[in-house]
Amino acid sequence: MVNHVHAVFPNIPPDNIRFDLLRTGSIELTSNKILERGFLEAPPPSYYTIYPRAEASAPQPPEGTHTASVSSASSSAKQPSLIERYSLHDRLDGANFTPDVIELGGKAKWEDTAEKREASLRERKAQMILAARQRMLAQRQKESASE
Q1: Rounded CA separation 142/85 (Å)
Q2: 71, exposed or middle or buried, with CB in 10 Å at 0-12, 13-18, 19+?
Q3: How far out from the chain centre does Cα 46 lie?
Q4: Angle between helices 27-37 and 14-24 (to 10 degrees)
Q5: Fewer CB within 10 Å of terminal CB in the chain, N or C?
Q6: What is the 3-state secondary structure (H, E, C) of the chain?
Q7: pLDDT tens, 56-112?
Q8: How far apart are CA 43 and CA 40, in angstroms?
Q9: What does the alpha-carbon distance between residue 119 and residue 140 come to, in Å, rounded to a whole number?
Q10: Which pLDDT does position 21 carry in this prediction?
């Protein structure tokens, strides 16, 4: 029964599931408790004297694998800047606006079609990126002037 509940709720530890199933005796009650609360209480320390701790269900990779080298290689690779990612190079020169001119927190108008809504979202995102870039450049200029 523990395996059935754990298959449906993999984020709940098996020991918590087993403890609740011992108390309720019902998969339905345990499942409902998880759905209502989002968690199950941890069993008391005395529980582990009778039932040894369940091993983690996720298999651990062997010590000599190359996963560490792959993750370090991907983190050392240069991530594209937001300007590159959103192709805003052409708007950099004309970006002499101040955040006061653009209302970043203002409400967007609900457009009629999905294409117009997507275009509006893209434009707001571009404006936010450019405004953040302007603030960063101003902060750097202020820091260099104070030195």
Answers
A1: 27
A2: exposed
A3: 36
A4: 120
A5: C
A6: CHHHHHHHCCCCCHHHHHHHHHHHCCHHHHHHHHHHHCCCCCCCCCHHHHCCCCCCCCCCCCCCCCHHHHHHHHHHCCCCCHHHHCCCHHHCCCCCCCCCCCCCCCCCCCCCCHHHHHHHHHHHHHHHHHHHHHHHHHHHHHHHHHC
A7: 444 444 444 444 444 444 455 677 787 887 778 888 876 555 444 444 456 677 888
A8: 9
A9: 32
A10: 92
30 CB-contact burial (10 Å; exposed 0-12 / middle 13-18 / buried 19+): buried
Rounded to two decimals, the pTM is: 0.41
CA pair distance 9, 27, nearest whole angstrom? 12
| 19: phi then psi, degrees, rounded to nearest 5 | -60, -45
